[in-house]
Specification:
single chain; about 180 residues; mainly beta; lipopolysaccharide transport protein A fold; eleven-stranded antiparallel β-sheet; 11 strands; globular; OstA family protein; glycolipid transfer activity; signal; OstA-like_N
Protein backbone atom coordinates (compact mmCIF):
# COMPACT_ATOMS: atom_id res chain seq x y z
CA UNK A 1 0.00 0.00 0.00
CA UNK A 2 1.37 3.37 -0.98
CA UNK A 3 0.99 5.68 2.05
CA UNK A 4 1.22 9.38 1.14
CA UNK A 5 3.12 11.78 3.35
CA UNK A 6 0.86 14.40 4.92
CA UNK A 7 3.31 16.19 7.24
CA UNK A 8 4.18 18.61 5.83
CA UNK A 9 1.90 18.26 2.85
CA UNK A 10 2.36 20.68 -0.02
CA UNK A 11 -1.12 21.45 -1.23
CA UNK A 12 -3.24 24.08 -2.75
CA UNK A 13 -5.15 25.31 0.29
CA UNK A 14 -6.13 28.86 -0.39
CA UNK A 15 -8.64 30.38 1.97
CA UNK A 16 -9.03 34.08 1.60
CA UNK A 17 -11.88 36.50 1.57
CA UNK A 18 -13.09 35.17 4.91
CA UNK A 19 -15.42 38.05 5.54
CA UNK A 20 -18.63 39.07 3.91
CA UNK A 21 -18.29 41.91 1.48
CA UNK A 22 -21.32 43.53 3.08
CA UNK A 23 -19.69 43.48 6.51
CA UNK A 24 -16.55 45.33 5.39
CA UNK A 25 -18.03 48.87 5.57
CA UNK A 26 -19.21 48.28 9.13
CA UNK A 27 -15.76 47.00 9.99
CA UNK A 28 -13.88 50.10 8.89
CA UNK A 29 -12.88 48.75 5.45
CA UNK A 30 -10.43 46.33 7.10
CA UNK A 31 -8.85 43.80 4.75
CA UNK A 32 -8.59 40.16 5.74
CA UNK A 33 -5.04 39.11 6.53
CA UNK A 34 -5.79 36.08 4.35
CA UNK A 35 -6.02 38.23 1.23
CA UNK A 36 -3.13 37.10 -0.93
CA UNK A 37 -2.56 34.03 1.26
CA UNK A 38 0.31 31.97 -0.18
CA UNK A 39 -1.30 28.61 -0.93
CA UNK A 40 2.07 27.09 -1.82
CA UNK A 41 3.23 27.08 1.78
CA UNK A 42 3.49 23.68 3.47
CA UNK A 43 0.29 22.37 5.04
CA UNK A 44 0.72 20.77 8.47
CA UNK A 45 -1.98 18.38 9.68
CA UNK A 46 -2.09 17.02 13.23
CA UNK A 47 -4.69 14.55 14.46
CA UNK A 48 -5.12 11.73 16.95
CA UNK A 49 -5.60 9.23 14.11
CA UNK A 50 -5.22 8.90 10.34
CA UNK A 51 -6.73 6.30 8.06
CA UNK A 52 -5.40 6.26 4.50
CA UNK A 53 -7.84 4.82 1.97
CA UNK A 54 -5.35 4.69 -0.88
CA UNK A 55 -7.61 2.91 -3.38
CA UNK A 56 -10.19 5.68 -2.97
CA UNK A 57 -7.50 8.42 -2.97
CA UNK A 58 -8.75 9.60 0.40
CA UNK A 59 -7.39 10.13 3.89
CA UNK A 60 -9.48 10.51 7.02
CA UNK A 61 -8.05 12.40 9.98
CA UNK A 62 -9.93 12.15 13.27
CA UNK A 63 -9.62 13.39 16.82
CA UNK A 64 -8.70 17.01 17.49
CA UNK A 65 -7.68 17.73 13.88
CA UNK A 66 -5.59 20.84 13.34
CA UNK A 67 -4.58 22.15 9.92
CA UNK A 68 -2.07 25.00 9.64
CA UNK A 69 -0.76 26.87 6.62
CA UNK A 70 0.96 30.17 7.24
CA UNK A 71 -1.39 32.30 9.34
CA UNK A 72 -4.44 30.18 8.42
CA UNK A 73 -5.86 27.58 10.82
CA UNK A 74 -8.66 25.05 10.45
CA UNK A 75 -9.78 22.90 13.39
CA UNK A 76 -12.39 20.13 13.38
CA UNK A 77 -13.21 16.81 15.00
CA UNK A 78 -12.84 14.98 11.68
CA UNK A 79 -11.39 15.80 8.27
CA UNK A 80 -11.69 13.87 4.99
CA UNK A 81 -9.18 14.75 2.30
CA UNK A 82 -9.77 13.69 -1.32
CA UNK A 83 -6.55 13.75 -3.32
CA UNK A 84 -4.88 12.46 -6.46
CA UNK A 85 -1.30 11.71 -7.33
CA UNK A 86 -0.13 14.48 -9.63
CA UNK A 87 2.42 12.91 -11.97
CA UNK A 88 5.85 13.72 -10.60
CA UNK A 89 4.56 16.52 -8.35
CA UNK A 90 3.33 14.58 -5.32
CA UNK A 91 -0.21 14.78 -4.04
CA UNK A 92 -2.82 17.29 -5.11
CA UNK A 93 -5.70 17.92 -2.72
CA UNK A 94 -9.03 18.17 -4.55
CA UNK A 95 -11.52 18.57 -1.72
CA UNK A 96 -11.56 18.84 2.05
CA UNK A 97 -14.66 17.92 4.07
CA UNK A 98 -14.69 18.70 7.78
CA UNK A 99 -17.22 18.08 10.52
CA UNK A 100 -17.54 18.43 14.25
CA UNK A 101 -17.22 22.06 15.28
CA UNK A 102 -15.37 23.34 12.22
CA UNK A 103 -13.44 26.53 12.86
CA UNK A 104 -11.52 28.60 10.28
CA UNK A 105 -9.22 31.29 11.74
CA UNK A 106 -6.72 33.95 10.82
CA UNK A 107 -5.11 36.45 13.20
CA UNK A 108 -7.98 38.92 12.68
CA UNK A 109 -11.12 36.86 12.01
CA UNK A 110 -12.82 33.52 12.55
CA UNK A 111 -15.75 31.52 11.22
CA UNK A 112 -17.48 28.50 12.76
CA UNK A 113 -19.95 25.94 11.50
CA UNK A 114 -21.07 22.36 12.03
CA UNK A 115 -19.70 21.22 8.65
CA UNK A 116 -17.19 22.61 6.19
CA UNK A 117 -16.48 21.87 2.53
CA UNK A 118 -13.61 23.27 0.54
CA UNK A 119 -13.70 22.42 -3.17
CA UNK A 120 -10.24 23.35 -4.41
CA UNK A 121 -11.15 22.98 -8.10
CA UNK A 122 -14.03 25.47 -7.98
CA UNK A 123 -12.30 27.47 -5.20
CA UNK A 124 -15.42 27.61 -3.03
CA UNK A 125 -15.55 27.17 0.74
CA UNK A 126 -18.87 26.40 2.39
CA UNK A 127 -19.67 26.30 6.10
CA UNK A 128 -23.05 24.78 7.02
CA UNK A 129 -25.07 24.68 10.23
CA UNK A 130 -25.03 27.22 13.07
CA UNK A 131 -22.56 29.46 11.24
CA UNK A 132 -20.99 32.46 12.95
CA UNK A 133 -18.54 34.88 11.40
CA UNK A 134 -16.48 37.15 13.69
CA UNK A 135 -14.07 40.04 13.36
CA UNK A 136 -13.31 41.94 16.53
CA UNK A 137 -16.62 42.74 18.24
CA UNK A 138 -18.63 42.33 15.02
CA UNK A 139 -20.50 39.05 14.50
CA UNK A 140 -22.96 37.72 11.92
CA UNK A 141 -24.87 34.43 12.17
CA UNK A 142 -26.76 32.20 9.79
CA UNK A 143 -27.01 28.64 8.53
CA UNK A 144 -24.84 28.58 5.39
CA UNK A 145 -21.78 30.63 4.44
CA UNK A 146 -20.43 30.35 0.88
CA UNK A 147 -17.09 31.99 0.11
CA UNK A 148 -16.21 32.23 -3.59
CA UNK A 149 -12.45 32.67 -3.77
CA UNK A 150 -12.64 33.46 -7.50
CA UNK A 151 -14.73 36.60 -7.09
CA UNK A 152 -14.09 37.39 -3.41
CA UNK A 153 -17.85 37.39 -2.84
CA UNK A 154 -19.29 35.74 0.27
CA UNK A 155 -22.93 34.99 0.98
CA UNK A 156 -24.53 34.11 4.31
CA UNK A 157 -27.98 32.49 4.25
CA UNK A 158 -30.38 32.07 7.14
CA UNK A 159 -31.52 28.62 6.12
CA UNK A 160 -35.14 27.51 6.06
CA UNK A 161 -37.92 28.81 8.29
CA UNK A 162 -37.77 25.63 10.40
CA UNK A 163 -34.18 26.43 11.46
CA UNK A 164 -33.63 27.69 15.03
CA UNK A 165 -33.21 31.29 13.83
CA UNK A 166 -36.39 31.20 11.73
CA UNK A 167 -34.47 31.26 8.45
CA UNK A 168 -32.94 34.68 9.01
CA UNK A 169 -29.43 36.11 9.09
CA UNK A 170 -28.61 38.19 12.15
CA UNK A 171 -25.65 40.24 13.23
CA UNK A 172 -24.20 42.90 15.43
CA UNK A 173 -21.94 45.49 13.83
CA UNK A 174 -19.90 47.66 16.15
CA UNK A 175 -19.76 51.23 14.88
CA UNK A 176 -16.56 53.11 15.78
CA UNK A 177 -16.99 56.32 17.73
CA UNK A 178 -16.28 59.43 15.71
CA UNK A 179 -14.79 62.60 17.09
CA UNK A 180 -17.44 65.16 17.89
CA UNK A 181 -20.09 62.54 18.81
Amino acid sequence: MNVPSFRPLRARLLISGLFLALAAPAMGQAVSVLKGHDSKQPVDVDADRIEVQDRQDRAVFSGNVKVRQGNLAIDAARLRVAYRNASGQGLEILRIDADGGVQVRSPSESARGDYGIYDLNSRIITLIGSVSLNRGDTQVRGQRLVMDLNTGRSTLDGGNVASPDGGRVSGRFVVPQRSGD
